[in-house]
């Protein structure tokens, strides 16, 4: 099988119960439970306010080319998120309103584009189809290929494999290995409950005790110059 121009049509997807365990938990809570190392870099940002939860369907494209992106639209299954590894190129858009609308009609769960999109005004108004991208430009793409579908890709300082769980909100997207999902969902829920308690204490006037602050300052020898 030639590297650089190959397609894997299908792969094993995780149980839907694993995905649903994350729904409603802030992405930041899950990332905290991953050593704060699970998120895409800050350059890949949400285009709208639609939350993302789905299974990675990976696509590697040459910079500015969306031939394999188009093929992926017809191969992906409902619940898949198309992950477009396009080398972070900012020169050309790889999708817009038409491709997004078609993907939504097929039950695809969203796009993550390591590159640009266009039709920002339309995509930013979508409420049920999440799109993440590195930038926006009206310049259209080439359709020459080659590329790869459903092989590991690297985007946003993360390696994403076909079948990984992708979970995103207004902060970012995190990449979750299916074998770690159950434990992470439980841990993230516990963090969420703890933070709800902290917020309730602040609002009720109990304050926000953080003894670690003074402990660490003492350990590093802070000097209070006005004492």
Structure description:
It is a single chain. By secondary structure, the protein is α/β, with parallel strands linked by helices. The protein has a single domain (5-185), classed as Glucose Oxidase, domain 1. It has helices at 16-20, 27-32, 67-75, 97-105, 120-123, 178-204, 211-219, and strands at residues 5-7, 45-46, 52-60, 80-85, 110-117, 131-136, 147-149, 153-155, 158-160, 165-168, 173-176. Strands 1, 2, 3, 4, 5, 6, 7, 10 and 11 form a nine-stranded mixed sheet that branches. Strands 8-9 form a two-stranded antiparallel sheet. α4 (97-105) links the parallel β4 (80-85) and β5 (110-117).
Reported by name, the CATH topology is: Glucose Oxidase, domain 1
Task: State the domain count.
Answer: 1
Number of DSSP E strands: 11
Overall average residue pLDDT: 97
CATH architecture: 3-Layer(bba) Sandwich
Helix content: 25-40%
Per DSSP, what share of the residues sits in E-state strands of 2 or more residues? Answer: 15-25%
CATH C-level name: Alpha Beta
